[in-house]
Amino acid sequence: MTDTTSTDRSFLHGHTDGGVWDKAGAPTGEDAWKPRALGQGVYALEVESGNPGGTIGMLIGDEGSVLIDNGLHKSSAVTLAATQELAGGPVDFLISTHLHADHVGCNAEYAAAGTRIVSHEDTRRALSVDDTFDQAGLPVFTFNDRATFHLNGQTLEIIPFANAHTVNDTIVHFVEANVIHAGDLFFNKIYPFVDLDNGGDIDGFIAAQRQIIEMANDDTVLIAGHGPIGNKAELAAAVDLLEAIKATMQPLIEQGMSMQEVVEANPLSIFEKFAWFHITTERMTKIVYYLLTEGKNRSS
Which pTM was predicted? Predict the structure, then answer.
């Protein structure tokens, strides 16, 4: 029988920090964002240095501004300054893609500046019972199915996916600009994080990614929550990576190996190039072990 008991479950917890990292695996430099214009008023704010959070999306125009996520609380001053400079003043709307602190850490600061915050109802519900989250940053507009913004000549399709990366994850499709902010449903060229203890599911994660691929074409720009800005082919490669990891781990679990035995066998060593400072190969092994054992027990 597989052993999923452990006195230490810390590897399952925590947000997926963004950042630029050196050869030792740690983020380097002061927190800073680098705006990148993607066309038709759509921008991505990528990490230039340090560790301010996951990649941010933005729409700017005469009719108003929309921000997608905002990074870690420790970087709130840097993030507010960068986004307000682009917007030419306070941001009008903020869409929170999911509950993790590296995407909603500045919500309260934006609310204080007059920004109206939008999220899926599941995300608001999770944040409302999170003792580490400043409740002043709770979303004031929520949705349960799709929602749509019509602003600056852009149609923003806000599309939720249940039980994927977390209990609910939202992507934002800028239809006319052919850009998709995929949030943490896309980790580009690095190990992904599936948050079992906050409703994540490995099969749901893969299914959500496949749906995003179906929405995209060869010219679509895909903003990853972590890793470089990508495209349809790179998202397909991310799906292939997770499928390969799952296929590598499943036979060992079916043999009845404990988590420690699997860690010692190190079956994911062949994927070492995808390790990053938040998810080492050992941590990825432990996360996937739980997803394929405890996670499947929960869903059955």
Answer: 0.93
